[in-house]
């Protein structure tokens, strides 16, 4: 029996790296594991929750990595290849820059593993491993094997299951690579198959563990309204407590909001991105209307659903006042949680191509392409102003005063969002104290109140 070792490397300089309070499971490798035939001995190692034993033996090593973790991924790949072990890489970064990845591995799986992975394993056994494995069309999402969560049972992840129902996105925002990677149309898994996967989920152990928590990883849970309504009706009996991602357009359909509430939705991540009309129009997200943001938030709150608002700093129309304006808005709107990030030109995006052609890229260390470092020249402020304005926003948003004002009187589940805020606060304190920016002066500390 051949041994397969699947590795998820740590993005050491990222806010969501080793110090991140919420250590979330890696769904991608579970999916690869589910595609692996039973005649392979399989192990998954995730550096986010456990040390990697570089002396562990394997016949084949598979490594997945997004951009901020790819430098570490290359180190690991080089180590195993030096021992004569074949290495296959996949994930977003290797898919966008396969020739770069091939300097460190023997083969790259470009894009989605379904329909390719078994070919990789068979070719390996025959000694005929190809350099590139790539789809000619996007694969069907029907008849996907169900991930085996028992593989993660003893790992120190948060007790939450990840489930996918759709892939793809038609919006093609300039800073996002989802459309380029997964297609400009939403592809849906059959509802029967998603329901069967949910039926097979087993509650995590633990006296104080919130049971039946599921995060639907789709970029937009309401991408296909007909599908979404059928899906939400189906999951009502399972008493889930679920989280997902959506757009501001969810408020246009009261039936979907009601079904979200009835099916156990605790919170939705909504990509507000910016308070600037000009920024939103430029990025390709003109359907976001900042003048309507308060109404959007109130309506979602009226259904007892919390909101994680996503905002990005560093767009071409952002000046030095953007940080204070954004934090003030989030407190006034009573957002339960927020995710702030620095604009990052990831390879494979229109934004990267634009900044590269304009000579605005100032750092090419992939480990700093993590949304909490500055790797480009902003238009309306210096890189230093962007970095420390971002730090100030993190500090203000996660202060005790802000948490109290945002959560007091909320209709959402405060017993879920309060621990989430406090957990983020712990991570932010470390991030703000040490800093991760590719700037000359990294010694500046910003105390968090």
Salient structural properties:
single chain; 449 residues; alpha/beta; Rossmann fold; pyruvate-formate lyase- activating enzyme; 2 domains; six-stranded parallel β-sheet; 34% helix; 16% strand; disordered C terminus
Topology:
Layout: E1 2-8, H1 27-35, E2 40-46, E3 60-64, H2 70-82, E4 86-90, H3 92-96, H4 98-101, E5 107-110, H5 117-125, E6 132-134, E7 161-163, E8 166-167, H6 178-182, E9 187-188, H7 191-199, E10 213-216, H8 225-235, E11 241-246, H9 254-262, E12 265-273, H10 277-283, H11 293-302, E13 306-313, H12 322-332, E14 337-342, H13 350-357, H14 383-397, H15 400-407, H16 414-434
Helix pairs in contact: 7-8, 8-9, 12-14
Q: Would you give an account of this structure?
A:
The structure is a single chain. With 449 residues, this protein is an alpha/beta fold. The protein has 2 domains: 2-134, Response regulator (Rossmann fold); 159-434, tm_1862 like domain (pyruvate-formate lyase- activating enzyme, Alpha-Beta Horseshoe). It is 34% helix and 16% strand. Strands 2-1-3-4-5-6 form a 6-stranded parallel sheet, sandwiched between helices. A 6-stranded parallel sheet has the order 7-10-11-12-13-14. Helix 8 (225-235) runs parallel beside helix 9 (254-262). The radius of gyration is 22 Å and the shape is globular.
Order of helices and strands: EHEEHEHHEHEEEHEHEHEHEHHEHEHHHH
- Whole-Å distance between the termini? 56 Å
Question: What is the CATH superfamily label of the largest domain?
Answer: tm_1862 like domain
**How would you describe the shape?**
globular
Identify the strand order in the major beta sheet.
2-1-3-4-5-6
What is the fold named in CATH at topology level of the largest domain? pyruvate-formate lyase- activating enzyme
Poorly predicted regions are 436-449
Q: How many domains make up the 3D coordinates?
A: 2
- Helix tally equals 16
Largest sheet, if any?
6 strands, parallel
Percent range for β-strand residues = 15-25%
Give the mean pLDDT. 89
**Structure class:** alpha/beta
Q: Could you tell me the number of beta strands?
A: 14
Question: How would you name the oligomeric state of the polypeptide chains in this document?
Answer: single chain
Task: Give the radius of gyration.
Answer: 22 Å
- Text of the CATH class of the largest domain: Alpha Beta
